[in-house]
Amino acid sequence: MNDRMIKEHVETLLKKDRRLDGRKLTEYRKPISVESGFIETAEGSARVIIGDTEVLVGVKMGVETPYPDTPNKGNLMVNAELTPLSSPEFESGPPGIQSIELARVIDRAIRESKFIDSEKLCIEEGEKVWSVMVDISPVNDAGNLFDAGALGAIAALKSARFPGYDGERVDYKKHTDKKLPLRKTPISVTVHKIGDKLIVDPISDEEKSSDARLTVVHREDGKMCALQKGGTMPLSSDDIAKMIDLGIEKGKELAKALE
């Protein structure tokens, strides 16, 4: 079936409160699993599985010059690499729009929640700070990389340990017991609107049928951190309110996986 036919089929099922794989509209696929410390050579890492979607996340740390506008804060960089290995939809080469958007949404969740206490990453103001680099690599894209990637990024940061550093050189062969300075954990849930129905954790065909999506980021203490809208269709204030409520409610399931 072409994309138009898939969308019509998806919308027909949703009108009956049914989905392509038989789930309820607001039900996540199973299993939801998080395995930390998956990559020994990284400072932090995680493997996340949601249904058939699998993502690896690695954290590397280095000593660099701070950004001019934040001389007393560490640097954060989030990258996502979408390769043909994970989906025939992706192509080799420079990052495409999907890679850039995935990295940007996850970066915003980490940054806006102030999950990392970046001032404690400062070594010498204006001269040296720790840089934290998060690399997201899907192994199998069966839908919902936004939630799987964000969950993996948080788990990898939680598992991260500083490498050895003598004031001049970073020793990547030595991992210390010192953890990253972290605050309250952010949880990211992306809610999709298809027709007049709201769903979570879409599979690939449902993502293609999505009219709009809203990524809802809140901390474990309930504080809202960020909202990121995607898709071509507008959302009403009522849509947004319902999507926020649903995102916060479903975030409890993802928070349990992190435990």
Describe the structure.
With about 260 residues, the chain is an alpha+beta fold. It has one domain: Ribosomal Protein S5, domain 2. It is about 30% helix and about 35% strand. It has five helices and twelve strands. Strands 1, 2, 3, 4, 5 and 6 form a six-stranded mixed beta sheet that branches. Strands 10-9-11-12 form a four-stranded antiparallel beta sheet. β11 and β12 form a beta hairpin. It is elongated, with a radius of gyration of 19 Å. The mean pLDDT is about 95.
How much helix, percentage-wise, in residues? 25-40%
Order of helices and strands: HEEEEHEEHEEEEHEEH
Largest sheet: 6 strands, mixed
Q: What Rg do the Cα atoms give?
A: 19 Å
β-strand amount = 25-35%
Tertiary shape: elongated
User: Count of DSSP E strands?
Assistant: 12
Number of domains: 1
Layout of SSEs?
Blueprint: H1 3-15, E1 32-36, E2 44-50, E3 53-64, E4 75-80, H2 97-112, E5 122-124, E6 128-140, H3 145-159, E7 161-165, E8 170-179, E9 186-194, E10 197-200, H4 204-209, E11 212-219, E12 224-231, H5 237-258
Parallel strand pairs: 4-6
Antiparallel strand pairs: 1-2, 2-3, 3-6, 5-6, 7-8, 9-10, 9-11, 11-12
Helix pairs in contact: 2-3
